[in-house]
Amino acid sequence: MHCHLCPHNCVISPGREGVCRARKNIDGVLYSMNYGKLTSLALDPIEKKPLYRFYPGSLILSAGTFGCNLKCSFCQNWTISHGTPSTVDISPSALVEKAVELKDEGNIGIAYTYNEPSIWFEFVLDTAAMAKERGLKNVLVTNGYIGKEPLTQLLPYVDAMNIDLKAFSDGFYRDVCKGSLEAVKQTVETAAKKCHVEVTTLVIPGFNDSMEEIEELSRWLASVSQEIPLHLTRFFPNYKMKDILPTPVDTLRKARDIAKKNLRYVYLGNVW
Fold first, then answer.
1. Pick the CATH number of 35-269 from 1.10.3720.10, 3.20.20.70, 3.10.20.90, 3.30.70.100
2. Nearest to 172 by CA among 210, 215, 140
3. pLDDT value, residue 84
């Protein structure tokens, strides 16, 4: 079976799964193994996504499943992205009803987050369509590694996206994430024309923290729109990068100063 959901374009043999571990060839039929499988559910501040310029001060029901189509060595949610977490079953209608019930507590909709939501594609598409009908907002917190056709199919139901731009280097994407930069750039460009977009870059010492790279990244993002907020986030040791020290706060401040020459909104994350 040939899966076209993301740029990996996996050719999956019978009984095997794709790179994401969420799509499997069973007797010649491609199945979504995580449809309706919930690993995480919480009512979060919208700023935690992070979205700072989309309904600030509001809350959003945040849901995630398992699996990911990138293999980032620094993954902050590796236990659900690359592990085998426990799940509970939920239907699109049940998740939407839960979101509606929480409106009185300040909930504005549903965020598909925690792991990579694009590989939860069929469930997200079904849920987002129902949520839209009920007046709820749909938010994707994503690595942006999705094919053009499924992205186009999903975007009419999406109100906002935070897209991880892991670095501005093809080598980084190839060696550290097992993906490609160009595919993510295309997602940013496409999504920015259709919904609210904010971008996050986790700044990792010795990997993507050169001021030259920050300058190049912010200049490219400004060419899409100077209004796109950029979140520069502090790295802490995790997963397969436990030997890398946390990002110096001074590095983030210098990076912010450089990025602000090109972008209107630049924020620092994980700094306290």
1. 3.20.20.70
2. 210
3. 86
